Predict the structure of Sodium-dependent transporter.
Amino acid sequence: MAVRGQFSSRLGFILAAAGSAVGLGNIWGFPTQVASNGGAAFVLVYLILTFIVAYPILMAELVIGRHSQSNMVDALQKISAGNLAKKIGAGTGYWALIVVSLILSFYMIVAGWMIAYMFQAATEVFGWSEASAWLTDFSTSRNITFSLLFAFMTILIVSRGVSSGIEKWSSRLMPMLLVLILLLIAYVSMQNGAVDGWKAYLVPDFSKIWSGDLILSAMGQAFFSLSLGVGSMLIYGSYVSKKENLVVLGASVALVDVGIAIMSGMLIIPAMYVALANGVTIFNEAGQLIGGDQLIFTVIPALFDTMGSAGDYVAFVFFVLMTIAALTSSISMLEVPVAYTIESTKLERKSASWLIGVFVACISLVLIFNFDVLFGLVITLTTKYSQPLLGFMLCIFTGWVWKRDSILQEIKQGADNVENSVFWKIWPVYVRFICPLIILAMAYHTIFMS
């Protein structure tokens, strides 16, 4: 049997896990939610909910992963005692494999757009107008080209293994992402209109702090920003040494994720108000800040157009940043089905990575050819419905199926006196009672109230 991969250092794990959490949604979703939900009031609620909802579930995934030393399908069976629980665990694991593969399939398409816009900024510098038009045109040929390019990049990294591929590239890409964000924040903050953006971002509107929509939005952002439910963190946890303190590692990942989300807001919101000062429309008909893909592919490029020749260089750096954010997330998603394939079929990592990667890329092609019908549907089924329910199942297995003494013994490896800590006095109760109820409330609101 092949030796199981392992992160070679604590920093390597933190950067890889934080990279998994820091994705495209973090950079374009968090800032607009902040601006639309009371500015710093939303940030405060988000910070609180990250550590009382998302962090406990993150810890559940890490503990299950390290204890089982296996993929999600096998892991949930290993912590189950009865046959029924084992079957439900296996079913939950397979469900997660399907969901993460579908998420990755549309993620490859969106990440391909980022690469296309990155190249488009370069073509503008050289005056290649025909190439520039093709790169920004929503065509099937462009979507296929760049989604496959992104798929190739993702497969290449995962095929090289845990320490030589995932850890090595996360350790390179995450500092690069951080530097690029800081450079762009500095540049945008010096532009006309940025001060208004900083006010919109940092000045709290406490009248909204008890709003149900604000709390649920912050809860959703906290939950989804940490890549919870689909097994990415469980798999990464299975590659962590028994000597490491999981409580500290989990908190470190959550802090890095929160930090980069907040920094994204420091970039995007002032950038939007700079765009406004340059005559770009940044509010929709309802008076809310434009968000999502319209923000990234309409508002921000329009801002770059107002910057003259410097705009092309700033645009290039921005879309390099977005591509890096996408890549650090995609490698963690691909690792979930790859790990299962390696452990269930005994295929070598390289073969499994290419087999699964190409399969997911084929799903991307199906979405591209049936874009209007399937793209939005797949996003809704996976992120809106499946992810919260998978998170709920992880809470049930950790809080109700797995024996508490066994959990404690696993966490004590690397944290000798954890049973006397505040964490152990609070976390088991949270993951058993509070988190499942909160996730159900989120799911109910999402399905029936939105």
Summary: The chain has 18 helices and no strands. The CA atoms of residues 164 and 375 lie 33 Å apart. The radius of gyration is 21 Å.
